[in-house]
Design a protein that fits this description.
Largest sheet: 4 strands, antiparallel
Structural class: alpha+beta
Protein name: YARHG domain-containing protein
Mean pLDDT: 81
Strand content: 15-25%
Low-confidence stretches: none
Number of helices: 3
Order of helices and strands: HHEEEEEEEH
Keywords: Signal
Number of strands: 7
Distance between the termini: 50 Å
Radius of gyration: 20 Å
Length: 97
Amino acid sequence: MPRLLLVSLFALVATQPPLAAQQERLIPLVDGRTCWTETSNRCFRYNANRRVATRAGFGNVRVPADLEAKPGFITESGFVAIERAINKQTGGQVYGR
């Protein structure tokens, strides 16, 4: 019986993905210019008062409060969702990773 319990526990632990793999990097949602990284050209302008994002030549896109992973930060997937919403306005392409 103890051997079966040990094997079951090992199987349970082995099937759990590492916590680091489940978390996405957080990107600061800056009032002004929000970028993928500090040196990246993947940026949009964010207005915290109106909660909208825009890029030159495109219209405004509403950024819902629930998109923030924690106050003032969005996940990488949230950033990509905002980019896609902006680019959909004129059929632009999302930058590849």
